[in-house]
Design brief:
Structural class of chain B: alpha/beta
Distance between the termini of chain A: 54 Å
Shape of chain A: globular
Oligomer: heterodimer
Shape of chain B: globular
CATH class of the largest domain in chain B: Alpha Beta
Helix content of chain B: 10-25%
Number of helices of chain B: 9
Number of helices of chain A: 16
Largest interface: A-B, 36 and 27 residues
């Protein structure tokens, strides 16, 4: 076997400790890594100011203008060009609002501004799930117990098997289909997921709380449905009602498929590690950082791609610093990579298409029993610096740099 | 929960219209879109525009503000919180209102003394230009003239503590009251006496007003024991005291020990200590912080904030004295008691300030 994986005895699944960085590092190294990551976070936090505030305000303003304009254009939705323009604008607006604005504000990334209009305690977003239950299931459960199988309910969202550590059950045979349904109805799936179905089944969550949550979702859902499928279509008049309804439905679908794709690429690609409850028990601050680093995967792309993904394309940085303004992730990425290189840790990343296909492959494969742990990424090594040389012109004395 | 400005008063009709429009702007509010056009059009928060900054002394200025919405008015001696954005962060401070109630142009003013480490005071004195938007909190404070007006008054102020005392004395004059007023003010030099000119003029023109100036730069600080000599009949007077904490503590103690039966002391202090267990109010209890999944036991007189911090919860706080509303949380179960007034708040869904409220038995709070 030429891979880094240790030979596996056929009786057990695999040996997860073979080259697992969490087991290879000494406690001192783990502590050093923790300090190094802490330092990066502290420095950025101390540096936050008017420039950052301007970024999020401009973005919020841009989103509101785009949403308002798209809705106005859609009043003429019975003309196909208006429909196309309005639907595109609204899709982009909804994606921006959910990904770069809503998700990040609800993380408390902008709470330092102390502005009640851009604050995790007051924000509500344009999606079915209520901000309160989202903050519990996502900010607390997922971000604290990231990729700990059995504790992080985002590993397969309790309805899919995305990691071989999860026991196979016959119901997972349906997951290729469930996967497609979830893509299309992602906002509602997330809203229901926040209920914590497993805890309800096990009787760990009191029914009164479930009722309270359901009431919240019903109210939020009602307002969302009235807005997108009744009020705005009605503003387009009798002739435009159906077309605007279709436009809003399309925009919601586009947003659902896009956010599903980005979010699934965050933790389910092959390179991301998962952990057992024992591995995460009593962990130090440093070990927490290492687990966050290993459990997340970035996506490579352009600046526009990063913006549209809500900077979740910097999933690694996001998991190390969930409450750091997302606009800073790109800037600190080289420093995170430097820590990885120093301690021989992987820095999980890949192009969007590749990451997404890996996730789909996993979902299809693990619908059936068995499945092995895929090969993890090797330790990060910075690419050699290539000295860029401009064109040259030849002179009797030899070549000299060309002008301009 | 984050500290917010007051909610402006708007006409019923407009409120209704905004509610209906909310169906298409949800989860945002129509105000969020109005605010895009002009932040002053939003009715989410009370705002004001700075009209001018008038220099009072070398280290103090009066900031004149025009509120964007109908202004509820205030009573002399009260204060309000003012919010301003400095380097991307919104800061809040409480300042005494120095403008006359019912100003003909609807203007409002606060008077600010420079604090060397004070971000807000330096911003107001050095950087603010007319036209600047500020956020306005609600009018608060119990440092007011009693009704009926007392016949004999002693005002003791020090430094910037002059601001509420100035408002009270202007009110007395405007009401035409013939009260006998002795006013002791201390500050470093005569030039640094904020509103000094106004009071010195009053000393000559209004019978029954006596001003005693104390320059701490040359004469040292005033001691409570000096009162017997300076104002022999201080026990018969309503005293209005406003100044730094040490001074207030010393005077309060002296009044408690040496005051007579009819001695009344009104105090304006901006940094009291609340919730550290010194108040013997209520029963204490256990707090469950719902979002953070933390439990905190609180002894008698210990605020939810102090107890929660002790238990390792990360809680928002500002003034820690019930002014700023930064630490507001939502009560989900149980009762709480206000450590300042002893008042009991019961009922699910109430918003409470955790810095001045203590649990009465077991409670659940969301913040």
């Amino acid at each position: 076997m030429a891979t880094a994986e240790a030979p596996r005895p056929s009786s057990t699944m695999h040996d997860p400790n073979s080259d697992h960085p969490l087991h290879r590092l000494t406690p001192e190294q783990v502590a050093e890594i923790g300090e190094a990551f802490q330092k990066i976070g502290d420095e950025v936090r101390a540096d936050l100011g008017a420039h950052d505030a301007e970024y999020i305000r401009n973005l919020v303003t841009f989103h509101r203008r785009l949403a308002a304009l798209s809705r106005i254009v859609l009043m003429a939705s019975r003309y196909p060009p208006a429909w196309l323009l309005g639907t595109t604008g609204l899709s982009v607006a909804k994606i921006l609002e959910n990904m770069e604005i809503g998700h990040n504000i609800l993380h408390g990334q902008w709470d330092w501004m102390n502005d009640p209009n851009i604050h995790s305690s007051t924000w509500d977003w344009d999606t079915a799930s209520t901000s309160a239950s989202w903050k519990h299931s996502h900010n607390y459960l997922h971000h604290t117990f990231t990729n700990v199988v059995g504790k992080d309910k985002d590993v397969g969202y309790e309805i899919m098997r995305v990691d071989p550590k999860q026991d196979w059950e016959p119901r997972f045979l349906a997951q290729p289909l469930i996967n497609v349904i979830l893509m299309l109805t992602f906002e509602w799936g997330v809203a229901l997921h926040d209920l914590d179905l497993e805890a309800i089944k096990k009787g760990e969550k009191p029914l009164s709380e479930v009722r309270e949550d359901l009431k919240g979702i019903a109210e939020k859902g009602r307002r969302q449905i009235v807005k997108d499928y009744i009020a705005f279509p009605a503003l387009s008049g009798r002739k435009g009602f159906k077309r605007t309804l279709q436009a809003n439905l399309t925009a919601n679908l586009v947003r659902n498929v896009w956010s599903n794709a980005i979010i699934f690429c965050g933790h389910f690609p092959d390179q991301a590690y998962t952990f057992t409850e024992e591995e995460a028990a009593d962990e130090s601050q440093g070990a927490w950082y290492v687990r966050q680093l290993l459990g997340a995967a970035n996506i490579e792309g352009s600046d526009t791609f990063h913006l549209m993904s809500g900077n979740l394309s910097f999933q690694v940085e996001h998991h190390l610093y969930p409450d750091m303004p997302s606009s800073r992730y790109q800037e600190i990425a080289p420093r995170v990579k430097a820590v990885c290189e120093q301690y021989g840790l992987p820095y999980n990343t890949g192009p969007f298409g590749k990451q997404w296909l890996m996730v789909q492959r996993t979902i299809l494969r693990l619908a059936f029993p068995g499945g092995k742990v895929r090969k993890k990424a090797p330790a990060y090594v910075a690419p050699p610096k290539v000295e860029k040389r401009g064109p040259e012109v030849h002179t009797p004395q030899g070549p000299i740099p060309a002008f301009p | 929960m984050v500290e917010k400005a007051a909610t402006p008063k708007i006409p019923m009709l407009r409120k209704r219209a905004l509610q209906i429009a909310g169906a298409i702007t949800t989860p945002l509010l129509p105000d969020d879109y109005l605010g895009l056009l002009d932040p002053r059009w939003s009715t989410k928060e009370a705002t004001g525009t700075i009209v001018r900054v008038k220099k009072e002394t070398d280290e103090a200025s009066t900031v004149v503000i025009k509120p964007s919405h109908d202004w509820d008015g205030h009573r002399p001696g009260q204060y309000l919180r003012i919010g301003a954005e400095i380097d991307g962060v919104r800061h809040w401070r409480a300042y005494s209102i120095t403008s006359d109630p019912g100003h003909p142009d609807g203007l409002l003013s606060i008077t600010i003394k420079r604090v060397d480490e004070g971000r807000m005071s330096r911003w107001f004195l050095d950087q603010v230009k007319p036209g600047q938007l500020v956020f306005l909190g609600a009018v608060e404070g119990t440092f007011r003239l009693p009704d009926p007006l007392p016949g004999k008054i002693l005002s003791i102020s020090a430094g910037s503590g002059i601001t509420p005392v100035m408002s009270l004395q202007r009110e007395l004059i405007m009401q035409g009251a013939d009260a006998d007023i002795v006013h002791i003010h201390s500050c470093r030099t005569p030039e640094l006496f904020i509103f000094g000119e106004m009071f010195r003029e009053l000393q000559g023109s209004r019978p029954g007003y006596t001003l005693i100036e104390r320059n701490t730069g040359t004469d040292g600080r005033i001691a409570a024991a000096d009162l017997d000599e300076m104002v022999p009949d201080w026990r018969e007077r309503h005293t209005f005291l406003s100044g730094p904490r040490e001074m207030i503590d010393a005077f309060e103690e002296y009044y408690l020990e040496h005051g007579g039966e009819d001695t009344v002391l009104h105090v304006e202090r901006f940094q009291p200590v609340i919730g550290d267990g010194s108040a013997d109010v209520g029963s204490g209890g256990t707090v469950s912080f719902l979002v953070q999944d933390k439990e905190a036991p609180c002894e008698v007189g210990v605020s939810i904030l102090a107890g929660g911090e002790e238990a390792g919860a990360l809680l928002p706080f500002g003034c820690r004295m019930g002014i700023c509303h930064t630490c507001v949380g939502r009560l989900r179960a149980g009762n709480v008691r206000d450590l300042r007034t002893g008042e009991l708040t019961a009922g699910e869904g109430q918003t409470i300030r955790i810095c001045v409220n203590a649990p009465e038995g077991a409670i659940e709070i969301e913040l």
